[in-house]
Amino acid sequence: MRHLEPLQASLEAYCRRSLNHGDAIADVLQSAVANAFRDFDRYAEGTDFRAWMFRYVHLEILNTNRKSARLGHAERPPEVAVEDIWQLALTEPLAKVLLDDPEPILDQCDAAVSEAVRELPALERSVLLLRTIGEFKYRETAEILQIPIGTVMSALARGRSRLRERLLSYAEKQGLLRS
Question: What pLDDT score does 24 carry?
């Protein structure tokens, strides 16, 4: 229990951003902890407990999202057509604004960020969240997801690019940036 307490907030944040339906967070965490407790004899003392626990949570998230899709639960409809988002290009003046002072824009984008992250493909979303919320290194992220480290790097780059395009579109439509 003492090992789990410091991880609670980051595990909840990872669930909140990874699950297709936010009402399953408590169930996912409870199942993941129960499964980890069941398999605790497999944990090698001295290894990264945080990565080990995130692996269980990640697997439970995948199972929950698959079950939700099988049962036909519709995801939240996107605010903007996805086709429109991917066709936008990041222009130089907008890039300068975003790099010079992004805070006024970010302060107003919480719901948009959440939605944009949810719309990422599952692998890109998982990699992005493990790197940003979990603060895992590339190697640790690859171990948690059981994929090659090169796949982690390319999924992170694609996820960041898609997120940037989505948020740029949102900022322009809200009048936060001038085209």
Answer: 86
Residue with tokens 């919480």: 110
* Structure tokens belonging to residue 154: 């390319």
For residue 84, the surrounding DSSP H or E stretch is: helix 82-86
* Averaged confidence pLDDT in the chain: 76
* Torsion sign over Cα 16, 21, 24, 29: negative
CB proximity list for 127: less than 8 A, separation 6 or greater: 141, 145, 152, 155, 156, 159
pLDDT in tens, 44-61: 888 888 888 888 999 999
Question: Kind and range of the H or E element at 77?
Answer: none
Is 82-173 a CATH 1.10.10.10 domain? yes
